[in-house]
């Protein structure tokens, strides 16, 4: 873990942090339930993933790797028969901790593997977050928000020469699925052993490397995919220009603040299921009975500027990641 898995996890967190900071200023349409929602920035969405991945990376590193040295059923039976005057629990603890492990004094023939379940659950959750990232990037590529830098000699399709497929993110997602399937079984099986021990864990433990190997392949695939991404600001901006209805939220919020009756209902009538333009939104705002300053501030809003604290949150993602 320390020499192979953690360094690549850290590279991933760093790469996504860089995406957040580099694109902090790029306003972007949000989508909830697949439909247009209040704007965000591309960088803020990447920051969300950076913080989530960092948090789970930290949880993985906090799992204590346990060890035991208490004999055939965990009671120092043979130890005490042979050398009854020795403090075996103390010696066992000193020996186990000298190996860099945490000592578990309450065991059977085996250390019960609970820490392994914790470890594999934590890695699975890191992988789940990365699947979410892979799928979102895949969707953004599909929308045209990202272009992919082509590699000389690379073939996107055997019959469609124009294709540049998001193969790195698809490869990552597939490998993460295989890894998590393996980790799921390990987490469920390993803490269970009949009475003082059965042998069902033995064959399962031999497959520990399978999930880690597929995870490593996935992490490297995602990193490779990130390195090929190029932001298509024109496409992102065009989407925002076509969705002035997202300003319904701030308009009705200001209407509520100043006691304008039925704000939600009026905006719903104007926007829901209808083509909304800049002109129709501006006309609606002009007709509102609001204080001059409030109306002036509303009229300055555009889908590009209505991003709340998204820019600052993206720019300061490093501090958020370091705090976790």
TrEMBL record:
Residues 193-307 form the Adenylosuccinate lyase PurB C-terminal domain. One of its GO terms (biological process) is IMP biosynthetic process. Residues 3-177 form the Fumarate lyase N-terminal domain. Pfam families: ASL_C (PF08328), Lyase_1 (PF00206). PROSITE patterns: FUMARATE_LYASES. Pathway: Purine metabolism; AMP biosynthesis via de novo pathway; AMP from IMP: step 2/2; Purine metabolism; IMP biosynthesis via de novo pathway; 5-amino-1-(5-phospho-D-ribosyl)imidazole-4-carboxamide from 5-amino-1-(5-phospho-D-ribosyl)imidazole-4-carboxylate: step 2/2. It comes from the Eukaryota. One of its GO terms (molecular function) is N6-(1,2-dicarboxyethyl)AMP AMP-lyase (fumarate-forming) activity. This is Adenylosuccinate lyase. It comes from Prunus yedoensis var. nudiflora. The lineage of its organism: Eukaryota, Viridiplantae, Streptophyta, Embryophyta, Tracheophyta.
